[in-house]
Write a structure and sequence with these properties.
single chain, mainly alpha, 73% helix, 0% strand
């Protein structure tokens, strides 16, 4: 992923949106979506915010391919990535509790697999 247009296109496809469907959700034309994805045209800030909201990502990711890009390349399940993004918004104490629960579940699952033939 090198640029904004490629990131928009990738996220659009991950959400199974056509250009027409995404355009309808954002309130712009399909041809404008095409310009953003393929011609390097930069959307205005309010449109960029709508892209981020509809595509369930951050403006930072759309513009810079920020740190969440690495997670997106690793985590293919959009719902799982969304839950981790939501977890990041929680207070540190609650994040720690959830990480402990996840760690315990993974430990138990691996132990169960190790003893199942």
């Amino acid at each position: 992923m090198d640029n904004l247009g490629e990131r928009i296109k990738k996220l659009r496809k991950e959400h199974n949106f056509s250009q027409v469907k995404l355009a309808d959700k954002i309130g712009i034309s399909k041809s404008q979506i095409n310009r953003y994805e393929n011609k390097g045209i930069q959307p205005q800030a309010d449109i960029l915010n709508k892209f981020a909201e509809v595509l369930k990502t951050s403006v930072d990711y759309l513009i810079n391919g920020a740190t969440t890009e690495k997670a997106k390349n690793t985590l293919k399940d959009v719902n799982l990535l969304q839950k981790f993004s939501e977890m990041e918004q929680l207070p540190e104490k609650e994040q720690g509790i959830l990480l402990n629960v996840i760690s315990a579940y993974l430990r138990d699952f691996k132990a169960k697999q190790a003893y199942t033939f």
